[in-house]
Amino acid sequence: xxxxxxxxxxxxxxxxxxxxxxxxxxxxxxxxxxxxxxxxxxxxxxxxxxxxxxxxxxxxxxxxxxxxxxxxxxxxxxxxxxxxxxxx
Length: 88
Known about the structure:
By secondary structure, the chain is α+β, with helices and mostly antiparallel strands. It contains 2 helices and 3 strands. A 3-stranded antiparallel sheet has the order 1-2-3, with helices on one face. A hairpin with a 5-residue loop joins strand 1 (13-19) and strand 2. It starts with 12 loop residues before the first strand and ends in a 9-residue tail after the last helix.
């Protein structure tokens, strides 16, 4: 199976699932910085997916990795159907 790239519609922003030390699945957005490091924004029971997405985009704007407006980011969220990305 070929690896999907840029399914979020925003370069350097990925979405996925990982597991914690108790083998519990966690869902997150991950921002890949230019230095090879990454920062995760988790969502689930306490944080909505939309809030995690907006936090990730704000972080990217601080690092100047995302130069568009927040309105454009919200349009990407809707256009790429982020609510169902993990099910594909």
